[in-house]
Every structure is written in structure tokens, then in C-alpha cells.
Amino acid sequence: MDATARQMAIIEIMKVEHSVKISLLADKMNVTRETIRRDLNLLEERKMVRLVRGGAILNIPKNETSYEKRLRVQSKQKEEIAATFCNYIEEGDTIYLDFGSTCLAVAKKIKQFKHLTVITNSLPIINELYKSKNIQLFVLGGMVKRNEGSFFGKEAQNNLSSFNINVGFFSGSGIDVNFGLSNHSMGESDLSREVIKHCQTVVVGIDHTKFGTVLPQRIILIENIDLLITDFVADDKVLEQLKNKTRLVLTE
């Protein structure tokens, strides 16, 4: 396999996995790590990937991707985050699930519980849970964002006013040690910030590819997150900073 074919193969792998490690690529393609490192450097120069410690992640445009497309990205990691989150909730809890594909992964996992109350603003989560007899489901309602299938606005915030929430689960499109969890949409982010005020415990679940990304709408600072769940943190310095600011749990 020549260099061009190998680099195309790397991109195809990353379209599925989104992130790659140099050591695994070298073994898979039967070449040296130095060869893979050169390939990734060239791909970064073409702005196709972004190098991280020990590997690379696929470059994603800063504009918001469709919900359906995000469901296929890092799906295994999202399932692992959701499974880990289930260790921190108890029967009888009232849980808020925010919009987003990682939150949908949580909705699929919590159906194992026998008695939960779930509040959400997400139509995909509603469709996932409304037939579950063991889950009492409350829908905030409001205006609909079509590409996300989520509700937001003053109506949603007003419907929230009488709830006390034991655990709120949130995700996002970006997270940074200094700038916190962030997202694209003002309307949905306004609701997320309001929900946080009603939560005893705030949990954020987000995969490693979102680290270092800062988007316009800040949801919450790292130090105000009670529990941060992720698959891994590539940068050792960032890892230590996170541990100093919040309770960090890695799924790996």
C-alpha cells in the first residue's frame, strides 16, 4: 500500500472511529509508528485531522452537524459513558436528560431500572421512553428545533419551575478546562442553564473528541460540574487540570 492509499484508508477508519491511535494504526497497517506519524502530519496539513497526544481525531466543521449523523459518531464511547452514568443513579431518582445523542444513549440504558422519573426536552428521548412502564416521563414542551428534535423557550422553562431534580445529565459539542461545557444553540442552552438550577447533582458525559472545542454558548464551568464522565483525556496536563476542578470518571 502506497502513502496515498494508506492515508485514504486512515480517513476511512476515522469516519467510523472518529479518533485513532498511532500504535493501533501501525499494527493494523503493518508499518512503523514513524510512517503513521508522517501520514497524520500530512493529513493535518490538509486540515483533515487534528493531532492529539498519541494519535489524531477527525476534523469536524464548527457548524452544527445533523442529529442523525451525530448518532453514528463515537457511538461505542457514548454507550460506555451512558453505562457508567447508570452507576451513579438510584431507583426512585428524578433525572433530567438534556438533548443530544449522548443523552439518548443514557435513555436507552436507564430502561433497566424499575422506578425512575425522567424529565426531558428531547423528542428522540421521548420516543425512546414513552412506552417504558417503569419510567414516569415528563415533557417540558415549548418551541421545537427541527434539526435536533428538541424543545426550548419560555414555555419549557415555565414548565420546569415546579420540579426538583436529583440528577441532571448534560452533554455538549465542546468542552474546555477554562471555558467549560459549551454548545451552539442559544435557545437550548438557555434551557440547559435553567435546568441546572433545579438539579441536586449535575453530571456531564462527553467523549474525548470534544475536548479543546469552545462554542458560543457556555452551559457550565468545569468547577461547577459534580461529575464529569468521559472515555479518555489525551492531554496529561488537561487531565490533571480536570482532576483539580471536578470529580472525573474515565470509562476506560
From TrEMBL:
Coiled coil: none annotated. Residues 3-58 form the HTH deoR-type domain. Keywords: DNA-binding, Transcription, Transcription regulation. One of its GO terms (molecular function) is DNA binding. The keyword Cell membrane does not apply. The keyword Transcription regulation applies. InterPro entries: Carb_Metab_HTH_regulators, DeoR-like_C, DeoR_HTH, NagB/RpiA_transferase-like, Tscrpt_reg_HTH_DeoR_CS, WH-like_DNA-bd_sf, WH_DNA-bd_sf. SMART domains: DeoRC, HTH_DEOR. This is DeoR/GlpR family DNA-binding transcription regulator. It comes from Loigolactobacillus binensis. The lineage of its organism: Bacteria, Bacillati, Bacillota, Bacilli, Lactobacillales.
